[in-house]
Design goal:
Glutamine Phosphoribosylpyrophosphate, subunit 1, domain 1; 16 strands; 6-stranded antiparallel beta sheet; alpha+beta
């Protein structure tokens, strides 16, 4: 993980914002503790914080400028198939100054312009500045794994990996009430919104092109969107299963390419267990990491993680968190979150990351797998409504017998009563309405 920030000034020299840029870079130190770099031209100033993963030498430091001095890139991410493209570029006569994926990405842009995105398999957020044409090209990966936030007005365009870095520049700070509504609905603020007016997230699968010569013309374009439906030409379900396993094995293998030590988060759930199983086939004695709750056994799932670790013979590490340690870290966690965000798992992941960093530099996680494989209760509930229509009337009767005042997360039985009432609330709704109903927090007023 690295951090990037930059500004394009439309009315004065970018040097006037040099101190703001340094403050922004300082805010991104946790993303890139290994080194810091700056680039300042007449209209543009860029900053980069580096976490060294591929080519850890100084030759790969950023901002990275090509041999001609015309193009400069700052980049946060990983370009999985860069070696294949590097080989091709070398055969075409390109000379490389580093072994980094950053330089390969820059050379692909120099030769292909915005079409370079179709060659990149990976996750990324990057900026490329063309000092001759006075253009800025910003792009975010297809799934939006890497963040990119921006602000623009008549005088300037500013971007950064995190909102806290953007806030180091002189910009308006007015709460966006529509975003606040989205937060209460989804427990987070989805792109392209942020908690502030006039500050936006660059959406996944989008790029921006800024032409400083043409009156600071700013254009945002979608280059990829997930197909709504895509039929696979396969004879049976078993073939689909095998193909899925091939794709996932390949995806995990690509993420194991690193010049530093790596491991896996392992909670024992569907997502991290699948990733661990596939990674352990390719890495001997894979390091895996779990966090447990010493004072809250009802929420402690380390026993499940241990079973998975034993099954795949990993080198397993368990960190048992006490309530006092959780509270000690809470202020740091809240300070780091830039806008309202209500996923309670972020607390455990933050602390687990601190613990894991003592052992490895990179850790694979399973984010997104629950959505793909139905890992949440709301996915199972949706399946039951669609496939077991006779069950709904019986559950409605059960909900009437068991009042909602007995529902809570305090015990297994009370949690089941809570889930029962949530389920029956969605039976008569459309699938879209059900998702929206089941998504927000449930607040009990006494």
């Amino acid at each position: 993980m690295c951090g990037i920030a930059g500004i394009a000034s439309f009315t004065k020299s970018a040097k006037d914002f040099q101190q703001h840029l340094k403050s922004a870079s300082s805010c991104l130190r946790q993303r890139g503790p290994d080194s810091e770099g700056f680039f300042i031209d007449d209209d543009v100033a860029l900053a980069h914080r580096r976490l060294s993963i591929i080519d850890t030498s100084a030759a790969a430091s950023q901002p990275f400028t090509d041999a001609s001095g015309r193009y400069t890139i700052i980049y946060n991410g990983e370009f999985f198939n860069y070696r294949q493209h590097r080989q091709q570029l070398v055969s075409e006569g390109v000379k490389f100054a580093s072994d980094s994926d950053t330089e390969v990405l820059l050379q692909l842009y120099i030769r292909n312009g915005i079409k370079c995105l179709q060659y990149v398999n990976g996750f990324f957020a990057f900026c490329i500045y063309d000092s001759l044409e006075k253009t800025i090209f910003l792009a975010r990966d297809r799934m939006g794994v890497k963040p990119l936030i921006y602000y623009s007005d008549n005088d300037k365009f500013i971007f950064a990996s995190e909102l806290k870095a953007l806030m180091q520049f002189p910009i308006e700070r007015n709460i966006d009430h529509q975003s606040l509504y989205h937060y209460f609905q989804f427990n987070y603020i989805p792109d392209p919104w942020t908690i502030y007016n006039n500050v936006n997230k660059l959406s996944p699968g989008h790029y921006m092109f800024i032409d400083l010569k043409r009156g600071a013309l700013i254009e945002e374009t979608c280059y990829y969107s997930i197909p709504e439906t895509e039929m696979l030409d396969m004879p049976d379900y078993q073939s689909v299963q095998l193909r899925l396993k091939e794709l996932m094995t390949d995806a995990v293998g690509l993420r194991l390419v690193s010049d530093v030590s790596l491991g896996c988060f392992l909670s024992g759930g569907i997502d991290s267990s699948v990733v661990t199983a596939l990674a352990a086939q390719q890495v001997n004695k894979l390091n895996t990491f779990s966090i447990g709750f010493k004072d809250e056994p009802f929420f402690d799932e380390t026993a499940f993680a241990l079973k998975v670790a034993e099954m795949h013979n990993t080198s397993h590490h368990v960190f048992k968190l006490t309530n006092s340690e959780l509270f000690e870290n809470l202020e740091d966690i809240l300070n780091y979150i830039d806008e309202p965000f209500a996923d309670s798992s972020a607390i455990a992941v933050f602390i687990l990351s601190k613990y894991t960093r003592k052992h490895v530099t990179v850790a694979l996680s399973g984010d997104g797998a629950d959505e793909m494989f139905g890992g949440y209760q709301k996915h199972r509930a949706e399946w039951l409504i669609r496939n077991k229509p006779g069950l709904a009337p019986l559950l409605k009767i059960a909900a009437a017998v068991l009042p909602s005042k007995f529902s809570s997360r305090e015990s297994f039985i009370k949690n089941r009563i809570r889930q029962l009432h949530r389920f029956t609330e969605g039976i008569s709704l459309s699938s879209k309405e059900r998702y929206l109903r089941w998504r927000p927090f449930q607040i009990q007023l006494i």
